[in-house]
Amino acid sequence: MKNDSVRVLYSFPHKIGAGGICYSAWHQVKALSEVGANVTVITGVLHKPLPDEVKVLTTLSWGKLRISYKLFGTRRALYLHDRIVAKMVAKGKNKYDIVHVWPSAALETIRAANKVGIPTILERPNAHTRYAYESVQNECKRLGVSLPPQNEYTFKKDVLEREEEEFRLAYRIVCPSEFTRKSFIDQGYAPGKLLRHFRGVDEKRYYPDTGTTGKGRDFTMLFVGACAVRKGIHFALESWMQSPAHRNGTFMIAGEFLPEYAEKLSHLLSHPSVKVLGHRNDVPELMRKSDVLVLPSIEEGFGKVCTEAISSGCVPLVSDACTDICRHMENALVHRIGDVNALQHHITSLYEDRTLLNNLRDQCLRTVPMITWRAASQRLLQIYREVMDDYKKEGSLK
């Protein structure tokens, strides 16, 4: 089967091309088109233009007129998108070979695809919803921090039930890390339903400093992302303060804190070696200027900052909840979730041993050709073919 024969309906309910998963989805679609897939995108809002080869339809915007996710309600917007896409699927029985959907906006679309005989794959950007809720709530309870009612990790029974029904009905679920895949297996899902892919990196935006590679500068550790309990900033701060690196090094935190969480950590955040930068738009430059990236998450789907750091020559110090593209003592140092002592040891080791730091950095840069968006979409296109073949074989046996 030729690449250009794979006709993909890609349903993305958010603002494709914006930040976070919207950024990832935009790159995924763009690269899929570049490697030969015939992609039709149905998205809530087109935030950033896609190549001309990609057909784009929107469900929550018409020209300059847009439905406000905030005013309309995000969940209501997602459900509306799902219903609109489902009708398109029902009418386009012979137009698509596969339907690619995202959580919380996929239930009716999956049902419609199942009815007309089109295989569906569900993109899972995080660990299983039940595990994500429970792990974050348990850590919040341990710390004495409460989540705002609308936080995505505050337990919501209706969201959990809807997503678990989506998981059940989808033909296959694609997981961006082994940690994500295992979270589903632990909930009783069959391994054969769970397929592995990965998120790529934009190597043209994230590239290394070709100058001094850190010589003559003080040790710098960087965190990038939402400063939330699930990201384990408290573990990073404890480990930093226990390491000699805090004496003349710098720990930069690029992201916004939940107020209650920041208050709980105020005694650590006020240390002179810790620089809270807030939200930043110069993350690639921050990574090029940093020695290591720290991401001690207790729950993670992929952690795209890990691949961005690798591509920038910034060595990841991560928990085992993060992407398995980070390989211990090859291109990263990996610790068990919540293991402050191990993380402290990893920080200290790279602070004291520049040879080890530079060796890991070199291995990071050797990894880059294997983790570009083009490489990631070639893998996803392979998954599409495998799913289509399996679906046909199962149909022929009925």
The domain tally reads: 2
Q: What is the helical fraction, as a range of percent? A: 40-55%
What is the total tally of β strands? 15
Give me the CATH fold name of the largest domain: Rossmann fold
User: Helix count, per DSSP?
Assistant: 16
> Largest sheet at a glance?
7 strands, parallel
The helix-and-strand class reads alpha/beta
Using the 3D structure, state the CATH architecture of the largest domain.
3-Layer(aba) Sandwich
Give the name of the CATH superfamily of the largest domain.
Glycogen Phosphorylase B
Key traits:
398 residues, Rossmann fold
Walk me through what this model shows:
The chain is an alpha/beta fold and 398 residues long. The protein has two domains: 3-200 and 372-397, Glycogen Phosphorylase B (Rossmann fold); 220-370, Rossmann fold (3-Layer(aba) Sandwich). Helix content is 43%, strand content 17%. A seven-stranded parallel beta sheet has the order 3-2-1-6-7-8-9, sandwiched between helices. The chain has a six-stranded parallel beta sheet with strand order 12-11-10-13-14-15, with helices on both faces. Strands 4-5 form a two-stranded antiparallel ribbon. Helix 1 (21-34) links the parallel strand 1 and strand 2 (38-46). The longest helix is centred in the last third of the chain and has 25 residues, at 373-397. The protein is globular, with a radius of gyration of 22 Å. It starts with 6 loop residues before the first strand and ends with a helix. The mean pLDDT is 94.
